[in-house]
Specification:
With 236 residues, the protein is mainly alpha-helical. The protein contains nine helices and two strands, in the order ααααββααααα. It has a single domain, classed as TorD-like (Orthogonal Bundle). α7 runs antiparallel to α8. The radius of gyration is 18 Å and the shape is globular. This is Chaperone TorD involved in molybdoenzyme TorA maturation.
Length: 236
């Protein structure tokens, strides 16, 4: 069915508007993966302070707008000469560690499988399904077999990497771009969207900082919008 549809399309590069949309999607996933994949560095926090207003599609989502305001509030102690204050940096680092790393029981476990079973066990069937999706594109996490593949940061990174692949295919007129879009659509529906709302509620209810509450609102708001963006690209 898909092959037949592709055969009817004209083999030509995508227009500037389409490529711009893909670039915006890649930018959004890049920001989100950096936010949830690792502890906040000074450089990252300064960058967020300077650029959070530019997060894509903010006018289309109350969640994103609400998140941006919360992030700005959290980072308003910026000193242009030295960057984010030490107190703010340490507060955000502790908030990230307490929620996502431990050593105590995590209030917002950042793994899909933790939300798929009552015991919150990791490396379950959900993890293997995510790994299978990664391997199709030879996407291998740096800490393979040490960090569960279904970590929120890794799942967002995968969507980011697929955006980069998609951009090059559409720019060159490679019709296999449709398969990449279908894989993004499936991954979003079968993985990220099945648990991010619950993860987001855990973060919002337990975070000690407006920063992570805000970034989580941006995350949930953006993923809902990205479904529509993918459908629009598939309709081209």
């Amino acid at each position: 069915m898909l092959d037949g549809m592709m055969a009817q399309k004209t083999f030509k590069p995508a227009g500037e508007n389409v490529l711009a949309l893909i670039e915006l999607r890649a930018y959004a996933y890049d920001v989100l993966r950096r936010t949830f994949a690792s502890e906040p560095s000074q450089e990252y926090l300064v960058l967020m302070k300077d650029t959070i207003d530019q997060f894509p599609f903010s006018s289309e989502s109350e969640y994103i707008l609400k998140g941006i305001e919360a992030v700005k509030k959290s980072l308003d102690q910026l000193d242009p000469s030295v960057g984010i204050s030490k107190d703010v940096s340490e507060e955000l680092l502790w908030d990230y560690t307490r929620m996502f790393i431990g050593p105590d029981q995590l209030v917002a476990p950042p793994w899909e499988s933790a939300y798929a079973n009552e015991d919150k066990l990791l490396f379950q069937k959900e993890t293997l399904a995510v790994r299978e999706a990664y391997l199709k594109y030879l996407f291998l996490p740096v800490q393979f077999q040490q960090e569960a593949d279904d970590h929120i940061g890794l799942e967002l990174d995968f969507m980011y990497q697929l955006c980069l692949i998609l951009y090059e295919k559409m720019k060159s007129g490679d019709l296999s771009y449709a398969e990449v879009l279908e894989d993004q659509k499936s991954f979003l529906q079968q993985h990220l969207l099945t648990w991010v709302d619950r993860f987001g509620k855990d973060v919002v209810n337990n975070s000690a900082t407006d920063f992570y509450k805000g970034m989580t609102n941006i995350l949930t708001g953006y993923l809902s919008l990205d479904q529509r963006a993918i459908e629009e690209l598939l309709a081209i």
